[in-house]
Amino acid sequence: MKITIDGKEIEFQQGETIIQAAKRAGIEIPHFCWHPGLSIAGNCRICLVEIEKAPKLMIACSTLAQEGMVVNTKNDKVVKAQNAVMEFLLINHPLDCPICDEAGECKLQDYAFKYSTGISRFDEEKNHKEKRVELGPNVMFDQERCISCSRCIRFCDEIAKEPQLTFVNRGEKVTIETFPGKSLDNPYSMNVIEICPVGALTSRHFRFKSRVWDMSFTDSICPGCSRGCNTIIGVRNNEILRIEPRENQNVNQWWLCDYGRLETIKNTNNREKRITSPSILNTENIIGTENQIQTDWDEAIGNTVAILTSYKDDMLFVGSAYSTLEDNYALMKLAKTLTGREDVFYIPRTDESFGDDILRKSDMTPNTQGCKLLGMKELTEEILAELKSKKYKSVFWMNNDDSLIANAKEYFRDVETNIQVLSYHGILSSRANVLLPLSIYAEINGTFINFENYIQRLKPAMTTIEQERLIGQYEMSRLDKFGAPNDSWTQGTKFNARPGWKIIKAIAKAMNIEFDFENSEEVFSELCKEKFGLDNFDYDSVGSSGYKLK
Ligand code: SF4
Ligand code: SF4
Ligand code: FES
Hints:
Helices cover 24% and strands 17% of the residues. By secondary structure, it is an alpha/beta fold. The protein folds into three domains: 114 residues, Ubiquitin-like (UB roll), CATH 3.10.20.740; 133 residues, 2-Layer Sandwich (Alpha-Beta Plaits), CATH 3.30.70.20; 212 residues, 3-Layer(aba) Sandwich (Rossmann fold).
């Protein structure tokens, strides 16, 4: 079936609207209230188009495409209608752009530029309404900026399944409200912030922290659960300020949960919680004491080699379902080369109360599936008990949160030596004979495999002191590019941390074992060939929306 839009013949499927057919063909029809993931409201009227033989203009978001239909989205009549809608919407819209978080990514700003005359005939005082309404723990509402598109209401009803918002009043007094005494509080509440086409709904965590044009934006994956939602990490001064969803119809559609946005980045720049330097224990391993001294990488790696040489056959290797395929594979390779064994373990983390039937999965790690497919084994209570019975005398421990193990101290009490590769301090980190600082997921290149076998790609959004760069793959903000060294806003904390595979390669090298890979992509290509039988597979093969393993 075919429809003609602006002289271009377009194929469409039964049931598609004009705006959907146009979008597929790359023809932009402006829209505020229409969102591809929500039901159709048809209330903003900016999508008016002319349809041949129709007596008046029709809205493209709710009019079904029909065989032989001829549509015009750009003629004088349509442009006049667009101008009129914009003038109407702007009558009561405050002049907030200079202080509005949405500025720079606001549909109203963009459309004012593209579809408006830039002139208003409205001389009267604008309507005044409440400017700071705390709708819920994460979302702030500015009533004056709302254009009553109802996207936020429909999102709560249809996607979050929590009908917590509604319109109240009529005409120019109309606004959004929660039921008296209730708030906008559900696991997905922050999605209303991005779908709001204006700056009416803002994040209480991000408000006024940065102009968006001073930030860099990097495609990434949420490490909060095994869904692996696609994200965009917003960074300024080497600090993550915001996580937003990135559309991927196979994984998370257009959405993210609030946990993924807030909890996964809580301590990324916390100098107290992050491990800031390689350290070694300066005397014998004395339980309950914190007598580590900071050192350089060479000495720390030297001490690691000494431990591995003496204890390799009695060593328990524990990788991580929070680590990338690359880091776990490098650890397996090291273990196999040293011991002939490939039994590297990972710690599962499951919380049934976290999972739901929207996005959140009870498996709260981003790469359990990757660990399984690499051939790693689950670290069970029985294996931990073997630490107590001294089957293992030493532990190589990478990227694990020991607070998730009940009685961790008890299990580790009789361990003679241990090497810990960690980003954050844990219960046992002060007991590490060698403590090696590990880059966090937002500082590295790498891959996770989600619960449905999609391999997905991480890119570095923040830099470390020793940044691993792949050409063209580190996003820069305007300030990163053009800020002078004396501009305070170009400063930021850079941690002395390295990706896991790189630390392991350095350990191997110090033991005269040469691993062929020089960067994370080479580790990835090697592991894809070795473990998944994928020849000539690299980061480009994964692409921006993931690759499903058969
Ligand atoms: S708050 Fe935003 S999303 Fe909600 S109705 Fe107003 S403009 Fe639309
Ligand atoms: S559903 Fe899981 S992967 Fe998605 S945002 Fe939430 S925690 Fe992150
Ligand atoms: S986008 Fe069609 S009426 Fe709003």
